[in-house]
Amino acid sequence: MTFLGHTARKNFGQHWLKDKTILRKILEVAEISPSDIILEIGPGRGALTKYLLASLALFTYAVELDRDLAFMLRRQLGFSSRLALVEADILNIDFLSQGKCRPNKVVANIPYNITGPLLENLLGTLITPAVRPYERIVLLVQKEVGERICAHPGDSNYGALSVRMQLLARCYNICEVRPSCFQPPPSVKSLVLVLKPLPTQDLIIPNLASQVDKLLNLCFSSRRKMLRSTLPNLIDRDCIENLMIETGVDLHQRPQEVSPAAWVKLAMNLNRLSLNS
Ligand SMILES: C[S@@+](CC[C@H](N)C(=O)[O-])C[C@H]1O[C@@H](n2cnc3c(N)ncnc32)[C@H](O)[C@@H]1O
């Protein structure tokens, strides 16, 4: 697919969003107000950027890796005093540590091949979460990944990613996006995902987070086993009954059935048991 002589680059995940209903939906769920400073990742040919410029947003940073597209966009939209077009790899930029003019929201149709590191860049990790997180992150992601992030205990796709993400942010699956909404169409379905990072006071402390991390790695590596069969790798078999009573978590469950809050309770008690021993 060529745009002003530019052929879409597969390795940069270039799929231009052309469906106006989806573009409007993204803007709607971003809930943009006049004080918002937006970060757009990968403006590409500017489909979403134009909507952001027409919105109430105070200012938009658009970060594009592709030099040719950045050049074309600068010529097309560079007149706007409410837009800074940054030619860079988003993974090398830390907007969160900026001062007063830092973006407070992210709105983007991202290249799917960098979803994992990008989420880490935007939210931090369970052990080292972003200190002053974005208020709201609206992303188009691969449907399968978005569904895993938003999955509930008991869903077939609920896993360690769901728990880690839900302990960092409220996660909402807004709507599915068909491949035909893009040009060229990607080979996978997509969805609009909204993440509302939790305020710092609702995050778990690093010590506890590393225990949760350890628990998730251990238990989800044997996802068919009941917790009471896996946990003796971490604590004395004799403590299992106590752990069940003190946490109220049924250890006959498999990891896929355990809620994020229950993982935290388990980790808290494991921390205590290991301090006592
Ligand atoms: C899926 S396209 C979206 C384009 C446009 N926003 C749209 O909706 O039509 C992803 C865009 O991200 C850019 N991109 C890829 N990797 C990037 C990175 N590491 N940093 C910044 N931009 C990147 C690509 O060049 C491409 O323009």
UniProtKB/TrEMBL annotation:
Question: Which residues are in the Ribosomal RNA adenine methylase transferase N-terminal domain?
Answer: 22-199
Residues that coordinate or bind S-adenosyl-L-methionine = 15, 17, 42, 64, 89, 109
**Does Protease count among this protein's keywords?**
no
**Database matches in SMART domains:** rADc
**Pfam families listed in its UniProt record:** RrnaAD
- Which principal EC class is assigned to this enzyme? transferase
GO CC terms in record: cytosol
What is this enzyme's EC? 2.1.1.-
What the entry lists under CDD domains is as follows: AdoMet_MTases
Molecular functions per Gene Ontology = RNA binding; rRNA (adenine-N6,N6-)-dimethyltransferase activity
Could you tell me the keywords of this UniProt record?
Cytoplasm, Methyltransferase, Plastid, RNA-binding, rRNA processing, S-adenosyl-L-methionine, Transferase
- Protein family according to the UniProt entry: Belongs to the class I-like SAM-binding methyltransferase superfamily. rRNA adenine N(6)-methyltransferase family.
User: Which NCBIfam families did the record assign?
Assistant: ksgA
Q: What is this protein called?
A: rRNA adenine N(6)-methyltransferase
